[in-house]
Amino acid sequence: MSVGATVQPAAGGTGKAENAKGMAILAAVVLVVVLLAVLGGRRPLEDSAIGFAGLEHWLKVKGLATVPAIDEASAAGTIRILPIYDPKLAGEGVRQEDGTEDERGALAPRPLSRAAFVERANAGPMLAVLPKWRGGVVSRGAVHPELLVPLWAMDFFGERPVARLSQRGLASFGVYDADYDRLLEQAATLYSAQVLSPSLDEKCRPILVLRDESGGEVGTLLADCTSALFDGAQNALFVLSDPDLLDNAGLAAGDNAALALSVIEGFAGNAKVFVETDSTSGPTMAPAQSELGGEDPRERTIGDLDRFFAYPFSLFWIGVVLVTGLALWRGSRRFGRPQEDVEPAEASKRRTIDASRRILLLAKADDALVERHVVDRVEALASALLGTGRRARGAGEDAAAIGRFLSRRAPELGEKFNAAYAAVTASPHGGSSRFEALAAFESVIQETWHDFGRAAGPARQDRR
Predict the structure, then answer these.
(1) How far is Cα 120 from Cα 78, in angstroms, rounded to an integer?
(2) Where are the domains of the chain?
């Protein structure tokens, strides 16, 4: 019984398949990273260039008393800073469009109705910051003249609230304090500066007025509009014409941070400051402590988990996905596909041959055992010298082919091989002479392996 050499498949197809798998895994990782970067990079309005999260942090750093929420009892003694992002105070459900929302963002990034504004003004003293920018600034992370809210789209209690100066881009203006009749040390650095409109300027009392380089007044920056906008006003109401003095991007420009601190300290006095970053709730952000009974007033929902996927936590998840993907890709490249729990064919052949050898030994069939050994050795040597792609042959044909091969390369060795093979395969004779012939044959095999660059080894290893 002889076992022919197995013809190995070409490695080109396997290599291409592995490369395709690696590229597919890498593409999937890149896609996930891009999606996480896009989704995780979306910051809420408060953290964007036109948000006011930076102002609250700045006031805390400078020692001003701030509160994260107010209730009915504390609203009257707290100055509320209310950023307005609704140019018409139209509120939810009212469409405000100009046909450029896809390119420039919404006209009202955060709707606020007139009734909600009045309710807040009646709850306590308030600084209202008029709108200026569209929602496109939030997604782009930068300002541009095209992202300004059109003046025709703005309405503040029946008036066009602001006018814009002719300067484009960033410009510095002197700030004149009308109450104390003095020019402040800090200048206001504003992008496409926005001042109160003449009609609103007549209704309100100017407090801070912008001046150009020549000292001429160009418009009102901050005014006291108490009892000027609606009937029944009970608390102080200040109106800031340009949000770039207080928003995240504006605080980093020029002397705006110091000027903002000076202005807020001036009208807040000893009162605490509440920067309202969520105008979707009611005017009082927290119930009175007497109503809570020591319980946490905040409502917990499954949506609270979203914070763990927002920036900067999104960077962590991007890293996890990237490392996992690279580990899987590298593992597939180094170790290949997972091996199935199937017995290799070579191991099965080996066990079959070992079982046959044991049976022959038990049967005292020495001739058959020697013949099997010779066949295996010749097949292994033929596979090594002539290549695994040779046509399947019998043991005699393989031996003849090996003899021709050795006769061309090493004539003396070829003669030895032919003589040794003829002796070991001759008709049966005495046991000692048969095993002597086998020893001579094995010696020629070992010499052949040595001369042609392969170390000799056991018969079964030669066939691997």
Answers:
(1) 12
(2) 15-40+318-335, 45-293, 345-462
Q: How far is 262 from 22, CA to CA, in rounded Å?
A: 60
Nearest to 210 by CA among 263, 150, 154, 144: 263
Each residue's pLDDT tens digit, 379-390: 888 888 877 656
Closest Cα to residue 431, out of 381, 389, 370? Answer: 370
Our separate counts of H helices and E strands in the chain read 17, 11
**3 state SS of 170:** strand
Per DSSP (E only), the strands in 77-234 are 78-83, 126-129, 162-164, 170-177, 182-183, 188-191, 194-196, 205-211, 217-224
Which tokens in the block code for residue 173?
Answer: 């203006």
Residue for token pair 């091989």: 417
**What burial letters (b/e) apply to 153-171, b meaning 16+ CB within 10 Å?**
bbebeebebbbbbeeeeeb
Q: Is the whole model's pTM more than 0.85, yes or no?
A: no
**203-239 pLDDT, tens digit each:** 999 999 999 988 889 999 999 998 888 887 788 899 9
With vertex at residue 434, the alpha carbon angle to CA 430 and CA 435, rounded to the nearest 5 degrees, is 120
